[in-house]
């Protein structure tokens, strides 16, 4: 899985949908929170479960003695990041999003470079896998054949909240969740609308490196709103499909409990592509071979034995 972020300049498919107008510019929004006291107010409300907090409570929690100063900063946040209600001040949805982005560490922190041994084998050669953590992401790679299982960007919160021994499984769940979001039509970055499509090496939109790879197709997800783009092997993207989740469930396997690269019955290359029209057949063998078929938009078509 590889990613890029590149604004697409708006949603081409937005015709006919409810209009969304910017109430303030992004610059003005950032200016509203560009003060340590305002960030402290947002964090105080977050720590109080989003509020409500009275003005006096906020002032006490952020340790600001001057009520005039405190009023000035709280007023700046009001309407957009904080709502003033009869019960007191509350964090607005925009306030929650901002605090969430800060707490994820994506804006303020970087990941320490570290290599963790992954307790499972390479799907290409059976060699040992390691996870190389970098400033903003992780690469899970085979020490023998150098095959990259996955290399997503990840938020620092992921590395903070789990012990390093569990990180490979956590990275697996994180990347799988991106596919679940995509299968539901949402961008994990901006919550905008995404489209998915199957790309083969000869397609003009195929990435340069794809030609000569062992897999015959990639599932590409593209966000109309923020331009985030990433790809996954069809066998990995298929794990977000209810029919596949159910198939594993019927065999006593919870997809959340083992990394997708160590799953029984599935290898990254276990895919056949049929063209004109394009269909992707993902083969899964859990004792009884099954094939799950997807169309060119990676919509589920059928399962056969
Ligand atoms: Zn290998
Ligand atoms: Zn997006």
TrEMBL record:
Domain DUF7351: from-to ranges: 120-296
Ranges where the DUF7347 domain occurs: 26-101
Superkingdom classification of source: Archaea
Pfam families attached to this UniProt entry: DUF7347 (PF24038), DUF7351 (PF24042)
UniProt xrefs under InterPro entries: DUF7347, DUF7351, WH-like_DNA-bd_sf, WH_DNA-bd_sf
Span of the signal peptide: none
Region (Disordered): 1-20
Protein's UniProt name: Winged helix-turn-helix domain-containing protein
Organism, scientific name: Halovenus salina
């Amino acid at each position: 899985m590889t990613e890029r972020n590149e604004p697409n300049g708006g949603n081409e498919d937005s015709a006919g949908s409810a209009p969304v107008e910017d109430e303030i510019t992004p610059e003005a929004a950032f200016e509203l929170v560009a003060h340590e006291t305002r960030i402290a107010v947002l964090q105080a409300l977050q720590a109080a479960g989003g509020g409500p907090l009275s003005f006096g409570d906020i002032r006490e929690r952020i340790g600001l003695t001057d009520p005039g100063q405190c009023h000035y900063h709280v007023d700046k946040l009001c309407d957009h990041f904080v709502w003033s209600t009869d019960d007191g001040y509350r964090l607005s949805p925009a306030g929650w999003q901002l605090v969430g982005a800060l707490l994820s560490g994506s804006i303020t922190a970087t990941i320490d470079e570290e290599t963790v041994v992954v307790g499972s084998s390479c799907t290409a050669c059976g060699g040992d896998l390691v996870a190389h953590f970098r400033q903003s992401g992780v690469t899970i790679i085979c020490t023998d054949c150098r095959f990259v299982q996955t290399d997503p960007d990840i938020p620092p919160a992921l590395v903070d909240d789990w012990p390093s021994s569990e990180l490979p499984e956590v990275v697996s769940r994180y990347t799988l969740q991106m596919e679940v979001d995509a299968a539901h039509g949402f961008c994990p970055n901006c919550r905008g609308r995404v489209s998915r499509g199957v790309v083969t090496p000869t397609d003009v939109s195929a990435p340069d490196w794809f030609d000569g790879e062992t897999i015959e197709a990639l599932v590409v997800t593209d966000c109309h709103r923020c331009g985030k783009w990433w790809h996954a092997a069809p066998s990995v993207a298929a794990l977000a499909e209810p029919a596949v989740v159910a198939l594993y469930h019927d065999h006593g396997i919870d997809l959340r409990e083992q990394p997708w690269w160590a799953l029984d019955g599935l290898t990254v290359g276990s895919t056949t592509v049929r063209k004109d029209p394009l269909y992707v057949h993902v083969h899964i063998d859990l004792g009884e071979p099954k094939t799950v078929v997807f169309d060119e938009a990676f919509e589920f078509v059928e399962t056969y034995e």
